[in-house]
Amino acid sequence: MEQMADLLALWRDRTRASADVKRIAMEHVNELERKMREVQAMAQALRHLAENCQGDDRPNCPILDDLERGPHSSKRGATRGPE
């Protein structure tokens, strides 16, 4: 949001250099791409957990177990139980 406000301020400033506009735009692009990577990593972790969930009537749940252990735990846990 702040980057957009900066761009709008530059739009109003007719003496601005286009390099300033480009710099702010690229900073915004980089931030958006970083956030997309974070969301993709979360989706991948959740997909891994869901694929390792039996999805039956038993109460044990690797998804909830992993959430209880905290962030970044999907790589350590969430294995299939006995079939």
Q: What integer value in Å does the Rg equal?
A: 22 Å
How would a textbook summarize the main sheet? none
C-alpha geometry: rod-shaped
Structural class: mainly alpha
Beta-strand portion reads under 5%
**Termini gap:** 49 Å
Work out the number of β strands. Answer: 0
Report the order of strands and helices. Answer: HHH
Mean pLDDT figure = 81
The residue ranges in which pLDDT falls below 50 over 5 or more consecutive positions are: 74-83
What proportion of the residues is helical, as a percent range? 55-70%
Number of helices: 3
Fold and architecture overview:
- This protein is mainly α.
- Helix content is 64%, strand content 0%.
- It has 3 helices and no strands.
- Helix 1 packs antiparallel against helix 2 (18-51).
- The longest helix is centred in the middle third of the chain and has 34 residues, at 18-51.
- The termini are far apart.
Would you spell out the secondary-structure blueprint of this structure?
Elements: H1 2-12, H2 18-51, H3 62-69
Helix pairs in contact: 1-2
Features:
single chain; 64% helix; 83 residues; 0% strand; 3 helices; rod-shaped; mainly alpha; disordered C terminus
Short description:
The protein has helices spanning 2-12, 18-51, 62-69. It is 64% helix and 0% strand.
